[in-house]
Amino acid sequence: MISTSHGELGVDDLEELAAAIQNGLEAVQGAQAEYDVAMWDIDDPKFANLRHIHVHLSITVGKLARLIEPRDHDAFHERPIPDLPSEDIAPIVADLLMHAAQIANVLGHNLGEDFLARYRQNAGRFAPDSRLRGMGSQQESAPS
Fold first, then answer.
1. How far apart are CA 132 and CA 144, in angstroms?
2. Could you tell me if 118 and 141 are in contact, meaning their C-beta atoms sit under 8 angstroms apart?
3. Which of 31, 107, 109, 123 reaches 20 to 30 Å from 72, CA-CA?
4. What contacts 22, CB < 8 A, 6 or more positions away?
5. Across-strand partners of 114?
6. In degrees rounded to 5, what are phi and psi of residue 8?
7. Distance CA 136, CA 72 (A)
């Protein structure tokens, strides 16, 4: 069984999950394209756009580091590590996804395909017997 926020998925549902990932990330890329048209100032030339996305991505990673750093000291000193407050971490996670979609859009990539390919690559390296090694491969070979 695969546990998700939408419930339990059966063992045979990896391809269904891959299709949902593909569809969901396609929707994210579409929404991000609309967002960028309405609210993103620097969009030309492509390198300037990519560079500016990188600046915002670096700011976002810095916000994450600011949350984690004191907890790192707690861990080192074997003190209890407080949970990351959802209201602090949620916008950071959302920003990371937004910036990933922006980069994929600027470079003409399909975020869903890239994401699933990365799962397969990592499974091949770290868990060669994992079912994830073939996840989504049926989606990519299926005719459109």
1. 23
2. no
3. 123
4. 112, 113, 116, 136, 139
5. none
6. -95, 135
7. 36
